[in-house]
Amino acid sequence: MSTGSDDTRGELDVSVLLIDDDMELCELMREFFAARGMAVESAHDGRRGLTRALAGEHDLVLLDVMLPGLEGFEVLRQVRRRSAVPIIMLTARTARIDRIAGLDAGADDYLPKPFEPDELIARIRAVLRRAGRASQATAEFLEVNGVRLVPGTREVWCAGQPADITTTEFDILELMIRSAGRIISRNEMAGAIYRRAVTARDRSLDVHVSHLRKKLGPMGTLIRTIRGVGYLFCAEVGDQARTGP
């Protein structure tokens, strides 16, 4: 990580938990983020990191994969069972299977090392924006075919039962429900969720959608894949049969 940039525009008043056993990197990141209004607490092993992540004292977690004590993917899985805190994976393991494993386990983003600090800041902004930190709770809800979303509290209910989904999955589902009955292209979805286009090889959206379907249970079939185009959320009962697999 290079800290050569002196640009301190756009400070973030947030608390970050950094779980990484590279103490030198942790110190560099602490100094870099402090200049941007961000408080960083470091944990250098998986078990300590898990304990701190579950304490509920941070706005976001930066999580390395290769950790002593408890590997990062297991930390991620255990956190996701009990918390929806936004998590960005930071790791030198860049293989496609590792990225998919991280996203499938509930990570909100995945950034390979080495990385540019300004890119990390941008990704943190995007994840926190999606998490709706600044929004206030409201009684407004959206409901289509028995799937109900409460944007203010970011809750999801399926046939009256709560569904535990990540911040990115919520944003995808909200976009789909607001556009129910209309096909959303992968590029349109990526622009709304990631604020960028996706390449043909970037399967992160597909992983999130697949994970979302599983969490919605039987109602996951309401999300249809339109091959070569994008996705559609069925607006009316019976649409599943008409739209195909």
Please identify which CATH superfamily of the largest domain we are dealing with: Response regulator
Low-confidence stretches: 2-10, 133-139, 238-245
Widest sheet: strand order?
A: 2-1-3-4-5
- Number of contiguous helices: 9
Oligomer: single chain
Provide the descriptors you would attach to this structure in a database record.
245 residues; alpha/beta; Rossmann fold; Arc Repressor Mutant, subunit A; five-stranded parallel beta sheet; 9 helices; 12 strands; 20% strand
Description:
There is one protein chain. The protein has helices at 23-34, 46-53, 72-82, 96-104, 117-131, 167-178, 186-193, 204-215, 239-243; strands at residues 14-19, 38-43, 60-64, 87-91, 109-112, 142-144, 147-150, 155-158, 161-163, 184-185, 223-226, 230-233. With 245 residues, the protein is an alpha/beta fold. The chain has two domains: 14-131, Rossmann fold (3-Layer(aba) Sandwich); 142-243, Orthogonal Bundle (Arc Repressor Mutant, subunit A), CATH 1.10.10.10. The strands form three sheets. The protein has a five-stranded parallel sheet with strand order 2-1-3-4-5, with helices on both faces. Helix 4 packs parallel to helix 8 (204-215) and helix 6 packs across helix 8 (204-215).
SSE diagram, text form:
Blueprint: E1 14-19, H1 23-34, E2 38-43, H2 46-53, E3 60-64, H3 72-82, E4 87-91, H4 96-104, E5 109-112, H5 117-131, E6 142-144, E7 147-150, E8 155-158, E9 161-163, H6 167-178, E10 184-185, H7 186-193, H8 204-215, E11 223-226, E12 230-233, H9 239-243
Parallel strand pairs: 1-2, 1-3, 3-4, 4-5
Antiparallel strand pairs: 6-7, 7-8, 8-9, 10-12, 11-12
